[in-house]
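Fold it.
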Amino acid sequence: MIRSNHYQYAEIFQEESIRIEKIHWQLHWFLYGIILFLSTIVYFVQGTEVGKYGMMLSLVNLLYNAGITVFIVKKKYIPWNGYVMVTVNIMSLSLYNFLDGYFISPLAPVTTAAIMLYSVVIFLASLRMDKMLIVWATFFSVVCMDGLYLYFYQSFDPDIVSKIVSADPLGQFYRTSYLILSGVLMYQVPRTMLHILRTQERLAKESLENKKIAQKDALTGAYSRLYFEQYLDNCIGLAQTYHYKVALFFIDLDGLKQINDTFGHSVGDFALKAVVTSLKKVIRDTDIVARVGGDEFVVVKSPVSNETKKSRFGFRLLEAICQKVVYDNKEIMISASIGGAIYPDNAMTAKQLIKCADAAMYEVKKTGKKNMKFYEGAMKK
């Protein structure tokens, strides 16, 4: 887990670290299995004493690996395991190099290829997405490697040091710089992951905001036509599954063009917003109001109740709309014609239901406006 101020990502990194624990555990079996095999060859075939210590150190690491098997199998997060494992790795490597220098040659700690395994330990630490663990692995590796060099430096043969570039202080400076650079590069792994997560979060928020914008009518705050059509389809799909009814009310404002022509479009816009505000006070949280045209609105009521079938709800919508509003000392009377249709009584699809409600609304227009009617079979779709 990254120990930083970005706690919102802690759970993500902790979940990922459980997977990394297993990868690290598998790499340990592989890595120290190879070291055990090579140390065995060094001791029994080459007869070199240091091979025995290599065998012992690799066995210690393998035993530790076996000890945490139960956590790996049960997929449990082990917060301390990363630090313990990195510390054991570096100490084992440093001790082996020390024994190699003590029993074989003091030049071994600064010339052997095993010194480069410190960078492997830093890489393994980076897989855990813990920036502080990477810092610890890099710091401890540099201290151990430079400590070995300083301990054995007084034992170096001056003639040999002058001929082997890797044995002089400048060579050690290069190795130290290499380890620090490895740590800096590996430190970027969790930083990069954090940046990716932030970018994904930002894009997701932008996508959500864009989706919300696309769902709503910019002027009135009612839902858009596209959202309404999708919502009605979903409502009918659920109604088919759970056997209930859906009501659609098609609303056309009476005389909005006259209001715009007489008072201006700003007054007409105010009237449209007032209509939506009034409708929202009447509908339930589960119902929606959408603007589907310049002066056309729809209300979807799902599921319907008995009062809807008796036109009560439709007349409540009409009552909410038909009101006098005041804008800049101007009194404007708003009224509407409303047509209603019910699934499955009048239609079986969303498209058909819209046609039925629209036909009922036009029937109101033809018979005097400012009224509400449900669709009947004689009405022309």
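The two ends are 63 Å apart (CA to CA).
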